[in-house]
Design brief:
With 325 residues, the chain is of the alpha/beta class. The chain is 51% helix and 11% strand. It has helices at 3-6, 11-35, 37-44, 52-58, 72-88, 104-112, 130-133, 164-168, 173-192, 206-218, 228-235, 237-251, 266-279, 302-313, 315-318; strands spanning 91-98, 120-123, 150-155, 195-203, 258-262, 299-301. The longest helix has 25 residues, at 11-35.
């Protein structure tokens, strides 16, 4: 063996050192989360972590632990729905929209956990290519649409152009206006030709979004989820709220309504999102012992959400009736 080979670092030693470094980082993050516990409790109760009375009320009291809802009976129903789509060759699209860290991805994982992979797909498109930027806007989404007997779940969808793109300047004003004028007709044709379209918007509070971002920042196992766009989301909260109002005003229709899922409570949001998906299809052999009624504290209509936004913003929003057709 050569001298250079004998002094070459052992890969196992390198791996052990890296594991120890990660272990130390994780321990630091855990200690930091423990220090933040009063703030987390305050946020979970619907108060801002910086509210003067929030921490005081949370101190000295044990947070009542909520019972996590059992999803499995409803996940069984999703298998029945999937079988119905297959037997009747029906097409189904479910859109998952909402601000960053609103719980879309976790809900999609619960929806698809036991489903037959041959008959569903999750689509999460990245940035458009230079060629795609020159195409009809909907063109890059259409190839991912379902065949007969298939469900496609979009983790963000063509509605990027209604909120994210205009807020961050990723599209021009004309592109935004053209989308808002055209999307209703696009979806009307989809539904008219037999596609089941479910549009879910996950609504997270500003305080809870901040708490989730902080958790991502501190936890090495979640840090990859935190992007520069996420960091700016808090500063641009009002801009997103305005675009959200315009999106609901213009694009929630009788044929393709928006359903808002309050998602500060993740387990409740996941259960109620699954219920809304199940309620959109009259499939066979439904379990009559299950309660499919959505929780009105979690699930609200787009119209109710619009009224809430108008109360918060006043006449600046209530006078807006959407882009002209």
């Amino acid at each position: 063996m050569s001298a250079s080979a004998s002094h070459r670092p052992d890969p196992r030693d390198t791996l052990l050192r890296e594991n120890e470094r990660l272990r130390q980082e994780l321990e630091v993050a855990r200690r930091r989360l423990t220090e933040l516990e009063p703030r987390i409790v305050a946020s979970d109760l619907g108060r801002s972590p910086t509210d003067g009375d929030g921490i005081g009320e949370g101190q000295g009291k044990k947070k009542e632990k909520k019972k996590t809802p059992d999803l499995k009976p409803f996940q069984i129903e999703l298998l029945k729905l999937q079988k119905h789509l297959e037997i009747h060759s029906r097409r189904m699209i479910v859109l998952f929209e909402g601000r960053d860290a609103s719980g879309k991805g976790g809900t999609i994982r619960r929806v698809t956990r036991y489903m037959n992979k041959k008959h569903y797909r999750v689509v999460a498109l990245g940035k458009p290519t230079e060629d795609q930027k020159t195409q009809w806007y909907f063109q890059r989404y259409v190839p991912h649409f379902p065949r007969g007997g298939e469900m496609v779940l979009f983790d963000r969808s063509w509605y990027n152009r209604a909120m994210v793109e205009p807020v961050f300047g990723f599209c021009t004003d004309d592109e935004y206006r053209n989308f808002m004028k055209g999307v209703v007709g696009f979806e009307k044709d989809l539904v008219r030709q037999g596609t089941i379209l479910v549009k879910l918007y996950f609504s997270v509070s500003k305080a809870e979004q901040a708490r989730r971002f902080e958790r991502r920042r501190l936890d090495p196992l979640r840090r990859w989820k935190l992007s520069e766009i996420d960091v700016q989301a808090q500063d641009l909260w009002d801009e997103f709220s305005e675009k959200k109002y315009r999106m609901f005003s213009r694009t929630s229709t009788n044929r393709a309504p928006w359903t808002v899922i309050r998602s500060d409570d993740k387990p409740a949001a996941r259960l109620n999102a699954i219920k809304m998906i199940l309620n959109s299809v009259d499939y066979e052999d439904q379990n009559e012992e299950l309660d499919f009624s959505p929780d009105p504290k979690v699930v609200v209509s787009a119209q109710d959400e619009l009224e809430m936004l108008e109360q918060e913003w006043g006449p600046d929003l209530s006078n807006y009736d959407g882009p002209s057709s």
